[in-house]
Amino acid sequence: MKILIIDDDSDIVEAMRMPLEANSYEVISAKSGKEGLQKVKDEVPDLIILDVMMETQTEGFHVAYKLRSEEPDSEYKEYKNIPILMLTAVSSKTGMKFSLEKDEEFLQVDDFVEKPIQPKKLLEKVSTLLTTKKSKI
């Protein structure tokens, strides 16, 4: 299984890469939303771990919107069912809090987790999202 991590913080990427690779996941990464969107096309990952704040405070949301677009001519339409785990420090930096139940339309992601994430929690979330994806196929 291939996981794409889109995050501009190389320390965070490495902290996630180690437990994922130790559990036999193939990990690729991108440092920006633009690079991440290109890697989605090039690599077709099974799961995307997406940071919210990169070049802008909402860049991750924009990436998720593009990937989940319902537009028939979207260049990302064939990738819209790839699960997205949003990784964020938004609530600690801005005071904003999100809930999948009440913000589902806004978030356009399958799950989210606050930074810093513990390796065990990361692996649980990844496994759950990949299992859910398989059951939808």
Descriptive terms for the model:
alpha/beta, 137 residues, Rossmann fold
Could you characterize the architecture of this molecule?
The chain has one domain (2-136): 3-Layer(aba) Sandwich (Rossmann fold). It has six helices and five strands; from the N terminus they run βαβαβαβααβα. It has a five-stranded parallel sheet, sandwiched between helices. The model is unreliable at 91-106 (pLDDT under 50). It has 137 residues and is of the alpha/beta class. Helix 3 links the parallel strand 3 and strand 4 (84-88).
Describe the secondary structure blueprint for this structure.
Layout lengths: L1 E5 L3 H13 L3 E5 L2 H11 L3 E5 L7 H9 L16 E5 L1 H5 L5 H8 L3 E4 L4 H18 L1
Parallel strand pairs: 1-2, 1-3, 3-4, 4-5
Helix pairs in contact: 1-6, 2-3
GO biological process, one term: phosphorelay signal transduction system
Keywords: Phosphoprotein
Protein name: Two-component response regulator
Output the strand order for the largest sheet.
Answer: 2-1-3-4-5
Average predicted local confidence, pLDDT: 86
CATH top level? Alpha Beta
State the shape: globular
Report, as a whole number of angstroms, the end-to-end distance: 15 Å
Helix content: 40-55%
Q: What composes the largest sheet? A: 5 strands, parallel
List the domain count as a whole number.
1
At CATH level 2, the architecture is 3-Layer(aba) Sandwich
The CATH superfamily appears as: Response regulator
**What low-confidence regions span 5 or more consecutive residues with pLDDT below 50?**
91-106
- CATH fold-level name: Rossmann fold
Beta-strand residue fraction:
15-25%
Number of helices: 6
**How many strands?**
5
